[in-house]
Amino acid sequence: MRRPKRIQRATMRDVAALAEVSAKTVSRVINGEKYVSNEIAERVRDAMERLDYRHNLAASQLRAGTNAAAIGVILVDISNPFSSAVHRAIEDVFRPLGISVIAASTDEDAVREREAVVTFAARRVDGLIIMPASHDHSYLSADVRAGTHVIMIDRPPSFLNVDSVVSDNRAGATDGVRHLVKYGHRRIGFIGDWPEVVSSQLRFEGYEDALAAAGIDIDESVIVRGFDSPADAEGAVVRMLEVRDAPTAFFVAQNVLCGPVVRALRQVGQQRSVAVVGFDGFEGADLVEPGLTVIAQDPFRIGELAAETLAGRLDGTIASTASHHVLPTSLIERGSGELPGPFAS
Q1: Which DSSP string do the residues of 91-156 spell out, in sequence order?
Q2: How confident is the model at residue 54 (pLDDT cuts 50, 70, 90)?
Q3: What pLDDT, in 10s, does the model give residues 82-136?
């Protein structure tokens, strides 16, 4: 794999030429300095917009040219094991190429995502790999036109035609719920992330698909989606288990919610009687008793493929239209998902 080429973007001199002013005047407009008339400032801003100009913060800070390449990685939560594995895989691809990887977390905040994009654009990163928190990615159109290559991971792009690498969330969830049905469960609770999160919605649809295939009606009383904290998720599961017609199994659609569900079951002493399948799990999930059965993604491969795609875009070896990779998941049986239900044969 060749070292990626530096992307040629519009410069301050290009803006100055189009606006028919000096580069110093452009600098004053960018920095919000006084002594620039409204008419000239507007002319400069119009030129910046027409050229899709992005201020080079690194250059203005260092006052020196550099050929050091860098890419930005925007994740929902870099401390999440899934995100950490993705980040490590990206680094492993770019380190041998001499390309730095700069990361930021959004905490599912679309505003923070946009702020991170602006920050990275100012630093003239050569490309972006984004696990999006936002639901409309058309705001990136100007950056794409300016030459920034963008790869979406974990969640597909919306209103923007760029490369993506995601897991087959819907099929994976269907496999997990079908597994619980196979072991005699028909009252299966769903514990998931906020419905607005694309991957969460796809996993819920997979849950619905599996129940429909088994002739099981959807019961909203055993579905809880969106939590402000792990304690909220734990409390919700405890309350669901206190009712007369409680679930005999749970499908947990997000890795960070698996721990709270396991704790809730232990709290009420039902960890050996209520079955659980998680979409991914947590570190040590194979060590609890019973071990947590999971639908496993391959975060390392997601990060690796995203990084390889971005590197190919940067060095010109990939010049085709946007590619959309959907990676399969796998079911790992560890005991919790194999606990028999009332209809076990």
Answers
A1: HHHHGGGTEEEEEEE-TT-HHHHHHHHHHHHHTT-SEEEE----S--GGGHHHHHTT-EEEEESS-
A2: low
A3: 999 999 999 999 998 888 999 999 999 999 999 999 999 888 888 999 999 999 9
**pLDDT, tens digit (0-9, with 9 covering 90-100), for 12-33:** 788 888 888 887 788 778 777 7
165 dihedral zone (left: phi>0; alpha: psi -120 to 50; beta): beta
Are residues 58 and 123 in contact, defined by beta-carbon separation less than 8 angstroms? yes
Percent of the chain with pLDDT over 70: 92
Q: Please, which pLDDT band fits residue 61 given cuts at 50, 70 and 90?
A: very low
Specify the DSSP class assigned to residue 335.
Answer: B
Rounded to whole angstroms, the maximal C-alpha distance in the chain is: 83
Q: Which is nearest to 235 in space by CA: 200, 274, 204, 261?
A: 261
Q: Which amino acid is at 273?
A: S
DSSP 2-18: PPPPPP----HHHHHHH
Do 20 and 88 meet the contact criterion of CB atoms below 8 Å apart?
A: no
pTM higher than 0.85, yes or no? no
273-294 core/surface letters (b: 16 or more CB in 10 A; e: else): ebbbbbbbbbeebeebebbbbb
Domains for the chain: give ranges and CATH numbers: 1-53 (1.10.260.40), 56-167+301-327 (3.40.50.2300), 169-297+330-338 (3.40.50.2300)
In the block, residue with structure tokens 């599912």 = 108
pLDDT, tens digit, 9 for 90 and up, residues 62-89:
333 444 589 999 999 998 889 999 999 9
Instruction: Give the residue-averaged pLDDT of 207-221.
Output: 97
CA distance 65 to 238: 59
Instruction: Look up tokens 């619905």; give the residue.
Output: 208
